[in-house]
Amino acid sequence: MENLNKKVNRVVLIGTGAVGCSYAYSMINQGVAEELVLIDVNEAKSEGEAMDLNHGIPFAPSPIKVWSGTYQDCESADLVVITAGLAQKPGETRLQLVEKNTKIFKEIIKNIMASGFDGIFLVATNPVDILTYVTWKESGLPKERVIGSGTVLDSARLRTALGQHFNMDTRNVHAYIIGEHGDTELPVWSRSSVGVERLEELPPERLNRESLENIFVNVRDAAYHIIERKGATYYGIGMSLVRITKAILNNENCILTVSSYLDGQYGHQDVFIGVPAVINRGGIREIIEIDLNAKEKQQFDHSVTVLKETMKPVI
Ligand SMILES: NC(=O)c1ccc[n+]([C@@H]2O[C@H](COP(=O)([O-])OP(=O)(O)OC[C@H]3O[C@@H](n4cnc5c(N)ncnc54)[C@H](O)[C@@H]3O)[C@@H](O)[C@H]2O)c1
Is residue 216 within 8 Å of residue 159, measured between CB atoms? Predict the structure, then answer.
């Protein structure tokens, strides 16, 4: 007989602002989990969002229960996704948000852990690498089960831009941004390819170094350009978070540039930063150490230094 008590996937979302709701909307549209719980310090907001999202469920690809809940709902959650906190204002860097969002996070993590939560954390709030570290420290969970969205969005932006440049399907573009999700991030050109061709080996008439550099600068500064125009960025990160969620819940063993804890990899330790990692139901299965060239290594080291310096006053 069919087991009617089969375990369902429960995801709890903390923070139902622009990023959180874009994530929730994509989750429902992509049929990723059976239960989605919304929590926000502004309870009326999470209630209203749950009501609105529920009205789309008849058109979703698979059944899902969505409700505005409490921290107690985290107890049996497989995944808690955090998008709560302050966002960048025009001209503001991600790192400038550190103090206020760390304070908010300490409170949130305490509430989640008090429920008995023993699943995986996925953090998106900025500065994401530092807040992922805060989440790890405050929760006491193993490092493999604390994941930041890292440079997944940045790598997606790079793939989109390269796909447009070459007029190729972005799914054929393999390109990675690593480092801080912010101003010191870097592209790993030495490991990028379009279809079966390595970018660095393309002849100058098909790609010159200058256009590559322009593509990267536009990717790195994309959030500033979007915030100047519409005040915030949320669809891209919402879909990036769903991509990571699927990798976890579906035990995909796929490679994504998430913010992961370095324990000697890339010559660094005690820092969360965006690097390629294999993601599955247990969280981060392993970090992939790519051979960076001298320039890339120097840029990556700089990114680590900036994160560690920024973290000092709050950790
Ligand atoms: N990682 C990325 O790639 C990426 C991309 C875009 C935005 N972000 C970040 O995501 C975060 C959210 O951005 P947004 O545009 O959704 O902001 P927003 O202001 O629209 O939403 C934030 C939400 O957090 C809630 N909140 C605040 N304090 C809380 C608390 N203590 N407990 C529960 N909820 C609380 C607020 O009520 C609000 O609903 C920002 O830090 C932003 O910089 C990250």
Answer: no
